[in-house]
Specification:
alpha+beta; 8 strands; about 230 residues; globular
């Protein structure tokens, strides 16, 4: 009964936001929870993070609505959970999901370039905050409030301004990109030339340029081309 209520509520919220009732994209993320007495045998030791506890794997849609969750000991391999999480997502959505984005960016962007770091952050914001191409293109550095992990979209859909909390994977991707971009005022995602040089004037992308970046990374990852809107 509870799962059906969550399912119906998610579809209603998506329709209110002008989306299709069922999502075509999902975001996978993972969080480590410190062990407690109640954790019992479920807890495991994570040698990398040097802590004992459980790992929670979440799948959400682009509005942040929960699709599926798995809880394991922290010492179990993360990659092993992807297949199960993907299967649960398709059950929850009726096989509507076509692409999944995984915590800490996208492998097609991990090429060691500034453009790759920018595109990973741009995709993370697009799907972590559920933004449209035009909204992504207009973002400035001032729109990202790092201390509270929120991003402000000014004059978005229906010409309204809204502030959106960001998931952990999106925050990490933005941190890596801003370390390369710098903290000068200007476009959050400026243009980058073929020699991997950031435009010194920090000029904003256009909506069309955002889509071209999406298409380029989709082709490199050998997945079907996609768009946030």
């Amino acid at each position: 009964m509870f799962e059906q209520v969550v399912h119906d509520l998610r579809m209603l919220l998506r329709e209110i936001d002008g989306r299709n009732p069922q999502p075509s994209a999902t975001i996978f993320d993972g969080r480590t929870l410190q062990s407690t007495v109640e954790s019992g045998a479920r807890a495991g030791y994570d040698g990398h993070k040097k802590c004992k506890g459980s790992k929670v794997y979440l799948a959400v849609d682009t509005l942040g609505q929960l699709l599926a969750v798995i809880v394991t000991p922290t010492n179990e391999q993360e990659r092993a959970q992807v297949a199960e999480l993907a299967e649960l997502v398709q059950v929850a959505t009726g096989d509507s999901v076509e692409v999944a984005f995984v915590d800490q960016g996208f492998t097609a962007c991990n090429d060691g370039t500034k453009a790759g770091a920018r595109d990973a952050a741009m995709f993370a914001v697009a799907y972590g905050a559920g933004l449209r191409r035009a909204e992504i293109a207009k973002l400035t550095l001032a729109d990202y409030n790092e201390p509270v992990a929120k991003i402000t979209v000014r004059k978005g859909k229906r010409n309204k301004t809204r502030t959106i909390p960001l998931p952990a994977g999106t925050i990490d991707a933005l941190a890596r990109w801003i370390a390369l971009r710098g903290t000068e005022p200007g476009a959050l995602f400026p243009t980058i030339d073929k020699k991997d040089r950031i435009d010194p004037n920090l000029v904003n992308f256009t909506a069309q340029s955002v889509q071209l970046a999406f298409d380029k990374r989709a082709e490199k990852a050998k997945v079907r081309k996609f768009t946030p809107h």
